[in-house]
Amino acid sequence: MTEAGLDDLAIRVFVQNLESVKRGSTGFVREDDIRTLTNIASFTGEGTVGDAIARTVVIKLNGGLGTSMGLQEAKTLLPVTPDQTFLDIIVRQVLSVREQYGVDLPLIFMNSFRTEQATLDYLSKYEDLPVEGIPLSFLQNRVPKIRQDDLMPVTWEKDPGLEWCPPGHGDLYTALPSSGILRTLLGRGYRYAMVTNGDNLGSYPDPVLAQWFADSGAGFAMEVCERAPSDRKGGHLAVRKSDGVIILREVAQTDPADLDVFQDISRHNYFNTNTLWLDLEVVAAELARNNGYLGLPVIRNAKTVDPTDKSSTPVFQLETGMGSAIEVFPNSTAIAVGRERFMPVKTTNDLFVLRSDVYEFEDNGTIVRTVNPAPTVTLDQNYFGTMEQFEERCRNIPSLKNVTSLTVKGDYTFEPGLVLKGDVTLQGA
What we know:
By secondary structure, this protein is of the alpha/beta class.
């Protein structure tokens, strides 16, 4: 890591995470050790707008390449409408809040080495986007993949780039201080940050939510939604019995024996949307108190060094989630939000719905759902799984306003003017 030019703090955090694994930590959160979280406040969209938005920044996680959709570039460069990418809509949201409330509202991207340059090149057309003295981006770190047999860094001569992996979005708490961004923001009077995924266009920087967070006195707040059957694999909140602290449990932290209970949405009924609100002063204080190491739960993701070759060396990717910091910061809390604030694009199924008439795009970048709930779409991933396949077959998105569910089996191409209703199954070749 030193030879690769990584920051000393990033190296120390990785070493401590590795030591945690060597001590036998599995990262599992047992069902017997937690209880259901209740009495979560709900966001109605109504409230006062004070000065909190003037002291807020927006941080977008933008390190993902969209490899699950066959992409090798930042997912946020994908077109969502004929003339707008994810990046265009994100920028429009931020600029509209600036104009309406007369604030600077910096927009900052946490990029990976693979997404940094292309993102900055694309954003260069927005000459009024940068806020003086505040960079548009900072880089997340990378860490070695660890052999499962001896917990040593793996060597893979066929492609040395595969020896590395991202450390999960929990790296935010390492990259923010090591890049100097945290110090810069505090020095310029910014107190709060809304942190969210770049592919979630529902996470609009709402000034009312910003004021709610400032007034709450919390150091950390997580936006959550009620779990639906489609959210069974999403990380959920719970309360640790031993100390009454709110924690986040991901599926990778769940013992196989507890998996059925993990997926019980009537028992654990709130999931993490991965939109967080941070008090930057509290973040800085906790980092200083712990010498930069927050001790977030380490997730051991079992993989092979070459994900396309199941016979290649078995490895662990050591990752942390930024949402797990809910158990670290004082007075952490959660707020239940509507689904309009959670519309991520993880698969071509999600993009299909987002490009349909189920959603309308407002001039200020907000997205309005025209029906409730949105239809469930399942496209045959053998023919629609990659963006190349998707674009070939989905040049014409049908009307989905009156659809409950849509399932496409086989090789099917949508023709212009198609209007669907009810529960629909389409069979292709």
